[in-house]
Amino acid sequence: MKNREIIEELYRCYRDENVERFSELCSPSIIWQQNEGFPGEGTHQGPVSVLNKVFKAFNNEWKRWNFTIERILDAGEDVVVLGYFSGVWRDSGKVFRIPASHAYSLHQGRVTKFQQYTGSDLKVASSEVA
To answer: Domain range spanning residue 48?
Structure first.
C-alpha cells in the first residue's frame, strides 16, 4: 500500500470503528497530538491511548460527528489531509463545522506521528451551521 492509501484506510477505520485495523496501521509507539481545547487534547502515545483518549472524547463531547476529507496531499513519508469536522454538540445540541488539517508521518507502512491543526475557539465553531 502507498502511504496515501494507508491514510485513506485509517479514515475508513475511524468511520467503521475498526479498532483492530486502526491498530495495525499505526506504529505501536505512534505519537498523536490533538490541539489544546479540542476533545482529546494533548499528546498520546500508542494506538490504545489514541482510541481511549481521543475518539472516546469525541463521542463524549459530540452526539454525532464526522470528518470530511476535502483534499489529500502526498509528500512521500508525510501525508497532509485537509477537511473539516461537523456534527452536533452533545450538551447544547448545536451543530458545528470546524476546519482542520491533519499531518501524518509514516515509516515502513505504518503511521508514526499525527499532528492536528484546527481553530482554537470551539465555542465560535459550535454556533456555526453544519
So the answer is: 3-125
